[in-house]
Fold this sequence. Notes:
The chain is α/β, with parallel strands linked by helices. It has a domain at 12-55. The chain has helices at residues 43-50, 129-132, 135-145, 155-158, 174-183, 199-204, 206-214, 239-247, 259-266, 284-297, 311-323, 343-348, 353-369, 386-395, 407-424, 430-433, 439-442, 446-453, 455-460, 463-485, 504-510, 520-528; strands at residues 78-80, 106-108, 114-116, 120-125, 148-151, 163-165, 168-171, 192-197, 218-222, 233-236, 251-253, 273-276, 301-306, 328-332, 376-380, 400-404, 499-501. The strands form 5 sheets. Strands 4-5-8-9-13-14-15-16 form an 8-stranded parallel β-barrel, surrounded by 7 helices. A 3-stranded antiparallel β-sheet has the order 10-12-11, with helices on one face. The chain has a two-stranded antiparallel sheet with strand order 1-17. The two termini are 46 Å apart. The model has no long low-confidence stretch (mean pLDDT 94).
Amino acid sequence: MSQTxxxxxxxxxxxxxxxxxxxxxxASGMCVTCVDGCIGMCEIGKSAYRGHEVIYPQPxxxxxxxxxxxxxxxxxxxxxxxxxxxxxxxxADSDKAxxxxxxxxxxxxxxxxxxxxxxWGIPGIGSTNVAKNNWEGLAIGSAIAGTGLTIGExxxxxxxxTVIKNGRVVDTADLKRRVKLYKDHQRDGYGAIIVQANVEDxxxxxxxxxxxxxxxxxxxxxxxxxxxxxxxxxKITDLKKAQLLYERGYVVLPDPTDPDVxxxxxxxxxxEFERHSRVGMVTEESFAxxxxxxxxxxxxxxxxxxxxxxxxxxxxxxxxxxxYRIDLLTVDGAGGGTGMSPWRMMNEWGIPxxxxxxxxxxxxxxxxxxxxxxxxxxxxxxxxxxxQIFKGLAVGAPFVKLIGMARAPIAAAxxxxxxxxTIDERQIxxxxxxxxxxxxxxxxxxxxxxxxxxxxxxxxxPTGALGLYTYYERLAQGLRxxxxxxxxxxxxxxxxxxIAALTQEAKEISGIQYVMDVxxxxxxxxxxxxx
Length: 531
């Protein structure tokens, strides 16, 4: 049966649509009949007058966008296996083996000194407006939940208040704010704030500044993400800021110092500059040197995040992470990221999550079998719900300790923030108002948090943080239920045979047993024992 894998010429992500929605050419996505006189609503048509602007999801900076490509195999092609007998991690007693007793805590790092209440975190949100405008909710929500949050690339370089001397950062506003918001709400030592760096950040000494001045313990090297194979990009609507970033060494298009470009911008010929980061050039020598520099600067833990590059690059990431004793390796499958990437790139480049994560399992298993050091692993690439989290942990068991999510937590924080605004404006939508008119009534976790934090601290919580925390609470309860059904009462007991492949292709890619082959030996022994 044929299957359309991509939406090629029209998408809500680029604010485009075909004139004849139901009659398009599968290969190109064009309308079967393209009519002279059409105003150009499709991606080709819009590109005829807005050009490179149509490369990116729109409206840029206030949306998070996900790839629409349908991959041949994804995590929905696996099912979770439950059982009616036994229990792992708890006594096999019906009064004790209840789902609230499932332990979701995870500890990792070379000394197991990083501990999360839940086996997930946000693996990198940087300088985009959607991150900056929702950081309060993301940071405070992550901190009170006891999970990790990574400050992504270019935050310092994008901050107009950053002070740079001799090419190195000596003071910031935005990075200090981001770190402080998290640390001020961290509870009982759970969670971690991580600072990531790309080429420009490294040149500016961002991580050294974060370690020495802001007491950040975790530094992450970045080779890319699942949504793009180039450096990060943002849109700039202010000429002076575009010129500032150009002076700081960023790639800014078009050149904001060119007199003709300035005139064109001022007369409204275009309204946005693009700021791009450079692509890194990975070598083992430079990697080893950078890891040593970070440790010498005082980093207690060093992480590596890599994207959906070709298998040889994944092998390099695994080998380097082992050889230089990295504390956490995050592997982000195609389609991941927060959705500011070029739209067609997000859909059409890279190795999809199940394929990439299955290759990762093969590579780390090989390293483990020869007795070499292995870091904790985190998987990312479109995860949003508890069933997907369970499946990701199972595909990579016993090496995968965490799942990385960005878009879904941002969505939860944005919704929480929006609800707070409607409460303040006394214009709560009917859909929400049926639950109440205050945050205590609307957010189901409010009673528990008010008791834990006290009235004074609870009242200070932004509703964006409540939104993220409450979403996380749902994920935690859902994951506990799934784990209890599989009789796994702690994360270390999740195994690859806790899921089954629903198709032969999923089996071949992942090495997970086909559902009809699960328990074959056990079944025969059980049936043969019946008299």
